[in-house]
Amino acid sequence: MHDAITATDGTLIDLSIGLEDGVPSEPTPPRIDAFDHEAGAERLAATLREQGYDIEAEDFPDGKGLAWEELNVIPHAGTHLDAPSHYGLEVDGEPAKTIEEVPLEWCRGHAVVLDFRWKEAGSEISVAEIEAELADLNHELSPGEIVLIQTGADEYWGCPEYLTEFPGMSAEGTKFLVEQGVRVIGTDAYGFDKPFTAMAERYAETGDEAELWPAHLAGREVEYCQIEKMANLDALPRRTEIPLVAFPITIENGSAGWVRPVALFEDDSERRDT
Fold first, then answer.
1. Is beta strand 80-82 parallel, antiparallel or unpaired with respect to 225-228?
2. Rounded to an integer, what distance in angstroms lies between the CA atom of residue 116 and that of residue 98?
3. What is the pLDDT of residue 10?
4. Can you tell me whether residue 93 is helix, strand or coil?
5. Can you tell me the distance from the alpha carbon of 151 to that of 189, in angstroms, rounded to the nearest whole number?
6. Tens digits of residue pLDDT in 47-70
7. How high is the pLDDT of residue 267?
8. Which of 8, 27, 224, 266 is most buried, with most CB under 10 Å away?
9. What's a single GO MF annotation on this record (predicted)?
10. DSSP one-letter code for 249
11. What pLDDT, in 10s, does the model give residues 205-231?
12. Angle (CA) 184 187 191, round 5°
């Protein structure tokens, strides 16, 4: 996670978690193989020799070339934006958008933070609870706003508890937000739904398929994107009218793309101490 950065035109607040090699907070953690400058010289020299040039690693200044990394990682690792195609092939009978088809207009605008840190881990966030939080903020949602769900789960990043200690959205709550004109919903938790273990336990008890990824699968009825694994929502100076950009990387026919959401505030003194 990252600190706020004071820029010439205001304060930038990074709301993302990056990719980390083997981190226990990911069930499928990224594998990052790093190559230093000496290895870079060897690799670049070998590439040029394959093209017919007589060059060795020691021909580089100080025997050092360019450092780089090779990654083996899914687009759902780290902070990322899920495209509608992640939830199903269609949305209300129309083809679901892949990540490169998501309009950039959806991914910028003003955000609203709803605080559900009081919710029990493994529970679901209901429509009534969303309405109550909005009432506490004295805020009515407007089309194009981005809603951020704060659970406090980012405090567990780097630990196995990150996978289990958070509440999730309900299908009804998800559809309610989208019906207000919200196209992007973010969460600081590992997942948008309740934890895998909670869903599995409830399904085992009831045999009800509606217990399996209900918030995600609501995206087969209403069109929206979700940002998972956000962070630092407590660093935001206010709860509403938060200027936010969250553009995803494009992956051909991708179900998701990594994203680095950033909030910008003109006055650094507005940051609140929490």
1. antiparallel
2. 30
3. 78
4. coil
5. 6
6. 999 999 999 999 999 999 999 999
7. 62
8. 224
9. arylformamidase activity
10. P
11. 999 999 999 999 999 999 999 999 999
12. 110
Other Cβ atoms less than 10 A from the Cβ of 97: the count is 17
What is 80-266's CATH number, 3.40.50.2300, 3.30.420.10, 3.50.30.50, 3.40.228.10?
Answer: 3.50.30.50
List, in sequence order, every residue forming a beta bridge with 82; answer none if it has no partner.
226, 256
Domain boundaries, the chain: 31-72, 80-266
Q: 138-173 pLDDT, tens per residue?
A: 999 999 999 999 999 999 999 999 999 999 999 999
Cα–Cα distances in Å, from 255 out to 85, 100, 115? 6, 9, 28
Closest by alpha carbon to 127, among 179, 194, 197? 179
Pick the closest to residue 114 from 92, 89, 132, 94 (CA basis): 132
Best CA proximity match to 246, nearest among 155, 134, 110, 51: 110
Query: Which residue reads 């969460």 in tokens?
Result: 187
CB-based contact 264:242 (threshold 8 Å): no
Which residues pair with residue 69 across a beta bridge? 34
Q: Which amino acid is at 163?
A: L
DSSP lists the bridge partners of residue 11 as: 6, 265
Q: Are 65 and 56 spatial neighbours (Cβ–Cβ below 8 Å)?
A: no
- Residue 9 is predicted with a pLDDT of 61
Q: Which distant-in-sequence residues (6+ apart) come within 8 Å of 225 by Cβ?
A: 81, 82, 83, 84, 102, 106, 107, 183, 184, 185
Judging by beta carbons within 10 Å of its beta carbon (0-12, 13-18, 19+), is residue 155 exposed, middle or buried? Answer: middle
